[in-house]
Write the structure tokens for this entry.
Amino acid sequence: MSRELISYLLRRFAQFLLVIFIAVSVNFVIPRMLPGDPVATALARLQTAGTGQTMDIQAVSDAYRARYGLDQPLWNQYLNYWADLFRLDLGVSFANFPQPVSAMIAAALPWSVGLLSTATLISFFIGSYLGGRLAWPGSGRGIRMLVPGMMVLSAIPYYLLAILLVYIFAVYLRWLPPAGGVSTTRIMRADWATFVDIVRHAILPIMSIVLGGIGFWALGMRSQMVSVLGEDYITFAEAKGLSPGRVFFWYGIRNAFLPQITALALNLGAVVSGAVLVEVIFNYPGLGSLLYVAIRGQDYFVIQGVVLVLILTLAVMLFIVDLIYPLLDPRIRR
Amino acid sequence: MSAPILDVQALDVVYDTPAGPARAVNKVSFSLKPGERLGLIGESGSGKTTMGTALMRLTRAPGRIAGGRVLLDGTDLLTLSPRALRATRLRDIALVPQGAMSALNPVMRLRRQMEDAILAHEPRRKKAEIDARIAELLTRVGLKPEVADRYPHELSGGMKQRAVMAIATSLSPKVIVADEPTSALDVVVQRQVMQTLGRLQEGLGAAVVLIGHDMGLIAQFADTVGVMYAGRLVEIGPVAAMIGAPRHPYTRLLIDSLPGIDVKRRLTGIPGLPPPLVKLPTGCPFAPRCPLAYDRCRSELPLPQETAPGHSVACHLYPENAELPPMPAPKEEAAP
């Protein structure tokens, strides 16, 4: 490792920490700037659930505020918030009292990570490969005919595609389950049958994300590849007598891929938010569904926790992209 | 006289444009003996680069090779199967591309780019053998062997150009096509690069086609000089005759337009512009700009004819004249 590379990595890591610090702080500030009062809302809920017994609203409210530390000055609240975060304490859900938010997120996170990473990687790599082939003069006409289809698919939002897929494969053909992460009757064990069950449930959500995203990646890659193929080093590679496959992958795709990775980093946010809707449609037990339910139930701590995890995940993924980039493009190591 | 190593016969390259085919290389014929240095010169758009790429059948759409033959040691490159063509490239005929500054893949270390060239032709070579060869090739062009482990952006322009020459000569080709190898380099580096190319050529005994627009550079390097105009090879001959007693009016004007260092004089250009390649005039393509043109030049295309051994010219002034008649001074172009 050169000194240049090390200093690059250190700077990226510092940026990563800064991003996390800002994100966490914003996540603290925003809910406190919202109109309305979570304690009042919670009390209102208690009252409507009304057990008939009268209570001293003021006393209960004060008790709540003291319980959640809301009676302290904002600065103290902020420090407590950080302290809680380091103990992985994200508070307690209102709707599912007294389940801790961290436990709910821990249960949902693996589902989302599995679904999203698989779907994103598939659509990114297949889309990029197809885009490369689209620009390659040696490709057959069959590949070129894919373009209009992919344009249409990339123009349809994830969730509409999802509804369409559910109708075709789950309702009409009955090949795949329409919703859920796993059969409701299955007892989760680390065995083959459970794995197959999970995969069968994941196919439709993954397909809707892949089909919706593949056109985007393919079209981006095509334009990159067209400009790369005009470069002198492609001509020189051909003049060296290299096989078309080698020129395509190591001189074409290899170079056209770099801006794609930047695009991936920039689009991770959109990928995540699109996936929230897909999870809701498929009733998938991931973070998206959790967030959706929490918003509907005004479950503040859950919302805050999920958003925080989403932001952190994005920051981590961006950091990983930053780490990969200098390996792929030596010109970046500075 | 030995058999030609490269024999180009009536080569035609056209670019298909919406306005019709643009004939960028038009019935060009020449041949090259082993070890011969041919310099091809012409202004921008005269078809010299197009021809250089066509010699290796690297022409890309919208360009296409429309006819002719490129015989390399007796084999027509234009009819070879793609596989046989790939085997020929670099091993028998190598390219030093225009803008060698950008001829290297920016994200691959030089070593890998040299390695894959050798492995494409000699797949069974061992790693150690290849490393030894790479070190030797780099030393031969005046680079340190350690340069192999650098990325192109870590090299200077002259170093990149040398590295490209090292790759081009890695399999000792019989013909090297060097397309403006010194463009974008400063004059000092230009000179070094040309000397390196000359040394390589002598060491390998390869024939070289040097394409360029710098008459001075080409005259120093080449044995034979060809002049291209509007896709045609209008004159080709030994360098001394071409400089001392050119036959074609265009060659004469081209040489006269060079600035001299001893005599200070007003720079003269050649008034007018080359004809559009889509709509070539009937007759000689240079006739509209030629101070010696007469009626026949505007109606009938002059064909190349040999005026002296190894010196041929496409001009109606011959064979009636023994040499180029004196030319009226070109009219100064009206200031725009």
In short: The interface with chain B takes residues 137, 231-233, 235-243, 246, 250-251, 254-255, 258, 328-331 of chain A (CB under 8 Å). DSSP finds 13 helices and no strands in chain A. The domain at 108-317 of chain A is CATH 1.10.3720.10 (MetI-like fold). Chain A has a mean pLDDT of 83.
